[in-house]
């Protein structure tokens, strides 16, 4: 119930409005890229496919992607540039399993943060504020929980994380309460299993 | 006193005269080497999606370990019927016209055994999957080969079909989308064959195991054409579309009399298909569509990549519209397919399958499976480029 109420807050309305505009753009086939003559450069389906390929491995070059998608290399470059402009492609990071680096003593924690939403800006103001701290790795607005924001923190030691929570997070004006959960081990991150057990077990030649 | 009996003499003359598969020899060669990149694998490079694995595990936990009915679980047959109707516009009655088999392999076997009398001729469209000929022979039939050519994208033409029909011709067997060529047949192309099939009252065994793996347009089942359901035995399975080769699960659909004939053989020789595999298949049909679509998307991308690659190397390659094989011509190199494949394996450690393993029409071609990672495909193409440039 509480979650449902939250989703109808003002800030979220603004957000979904923006999404709605984008959705109508898509339906009109105007998926951000137009050729000089006004013809759509690459259809939506192909763009989605391109994004999935990049999400899987962002180091594939435009030439290879072009061959895979049966598009000239230049079209791929244009499409990627446009997707970057639109901030649909935000960044090209590597997924690193830091736990395999013995001398990387970082700890991660998830903090449940309960806040008071503010008139007109809802949760956005406090969420954006929390985002600014470099120690903060992720911030999500949650539904259906007894808290509002889920904040992922990284620190060198548990003490460092704990003191960030008590000194920086808990002291923010709209923060009502926090609960800290330390992450003991990462098994899967962003859809990728860190230790993949599905090897290729096929025989070398089969009919 | 012991009399020496040679081992061979104990085998039936039919079995004794079967040639060992050409694939086998190549397998032995490739398997004995280190660092081989294989384009020789005729199965998906994906592990079965977790959803299906989990469904099967859960069924075991709940104690589904007994036989199912001979024809397979009714729920599964109902799902197969819905699926075929929805995807390929063919309708089969789950209770009388669908039989769940141990892979398409068993379906091919029982279909042929159910219809053949000794000496009956079966037209085999080649190049084709290696089991058709031996299974026809085991059923007492006589295979008669129909050739296809690269200039026709390895499609079956009415002329070639008509040429080989005799009074003993009982049936025709083919597979589209095709292993090894990747060719497909459209509804219009099927249409052109119908008058001949009907005039000569031929049964059609249509192996549609690659039916989901098409790129560009949907697979057209010959059974969907007017008047064809009655004479078609449709065979398919879960191996290719859902990456479930090791589960050994397929199915065969036909009108009730034919199906009852196949069921007779199946109930005595197989009893039923494995229960835990049927459970996984049920999940595949109910919830596996998006997993399958992702795999198809990935095959299409890799197909585009390798076909471009072969053409770049100078190996002429028709655009395969289905399955996961490219079938480039190696004729310009002057080598036979077997020599090409063997040298390529020895010198560059890339395994491909010589095209003539799949029938005479495959001479001068190699079958390259692109169901392998992009990384491997890239390396394989590089090595093949070296190899081909050394030859010229
Ligand atoms: C054309 C064709 N038919 C049938 C089969 C066998 O399929 P299954 O695994 O369902 O027995 C294969 C497998 O490679 C095939 O390529």
Features of the shown structure:
heterodimer; A: alpha+beta; Alpha-Beta Plaits; 2 domains; two-stranded antiparallel ribbon; 38% helix; B: 392 residues; alpha/beta; Aspartate Aminotransferase, domain 1; Aspartate Aminotransferase, domain 2; seven-stranded mixed beta sheet; three-stranded antiparallel beta sheet; binds pyridoxal-5'-phosphate; aminotransferase (chain B); Aminotransferase_I/II_large (chain B); EC 2.6.1.- (chain B); transaminase activity (chain B)
Q: Please indicate the percent range of residues of chain A in DSSP E strands (runs of 2 or more).
A: 15-25%
Number of helical elements of chain A = 7
In total, the number of domains of chain B comes to 2
State the total count of DSSP E strands of chain A.
6
Largest interface: A-B, 17 and 29 residues
Shape of chain A: extended
Q: What does the average pLDDT of chain A come to?
A: 83
- Morphology of chain B: globular
CATH C-level label of the largest domain in chain B: Alpha Beta
Give the helix tally of chain B: 14
Task: Report what the structure shows.
The complex is a heterodimer of chains A (207) and B (392). In chain A, the strands form two sheets. Chain A has a four-stranded antiparallel sheet. Chain A has a two-stranded antiparallel sheet with strand order 5-6. Chain A folds into two domains: 2-85, no CATH class; 98-185, Lrp/AsnC effector binding domain/regulation of amino acid metabolism (RAM) domain (Alpha-Beta Plaits, 2-Layer Sandwich). Chain A is built from seven helices and six strands. In chain A, helix 4 (62-69) crosses helix 5 (73-85). Chain A has 207 residues and is α+β, with helices and mostly antiparallel strands. In chain A, 38% of the residues lie in helices and 17% in strands. In chain A, a hairpin with a 2-residue loop joins strand 5 (188-189) and strand 6. Chain B has 392 residues and is α/β, with parallel strands linked by helices. Chain B folds into two domains: 12-47 and 291-391, Aspartate Aminotransferase, domain 1, CATH 3.90.1150; 50-287, Type I PLP-dependent aspartate aminotransferase-like (Major domain) (Aspartate Aminotransferase, domain 2). In chain B, 41% of the residues lie in helices and 13% in strands. Chain B contains 14 helices and twelve strands. Chain B has helices at residues 13-17, 22-31, 50-61, 74-88, 103-115, 132-138, 158-163, 187-191, 194-199, 256-269, 275-287, 289-313, 337-348, 374-391, and strands spanning 37-38, 98-101, 121-126, 142-147, 169-175, 203-207, 232-237, 250-253, 325-326, 350-351, 353-354, 366-369. In chain B, strands 2-8-7-6-5-3-4 form a seven-stranded mixed sheet, sandwiched between helices. In chain B, helix 6 links the parallel strand 3 (121-126) and strand 4 (142-147). Chain B starts with 12 loop residues before the first helix and ends with a helix. The structure holds pyridoxal-5'-phosphate. Residues 42, 103-105, 129, 175, 179, 207, 209, 237, 239, 245, 250 of chain B line the site of pyridoxal-5'-phosphate. Pyridoxal-5'-phosphate binds next to helix 5 of chain B. Chain B: Its cofactor is pyridoxal 5'-phosphate. Chain B: Belongs to the class-I pyridoxal-phosphate-dependent aminotransferase family. Chain B: InterPro entries: Aminotransferase_I/II_large (IPR004839), AspAT/PAT-like (IPR050596), NHTrfase_class1_PyrdxlP-BS (IPR004838), PyrdxlP-dep_Trfase (IPR015424), PyrdxlP-dep_Trfase_major (IPR015421), PyrdxlP-dep_Trfase_small (IPR015422). Chain B: This is Aminotransferase. Chain B: It is an enzyme of class 2 (transferase).
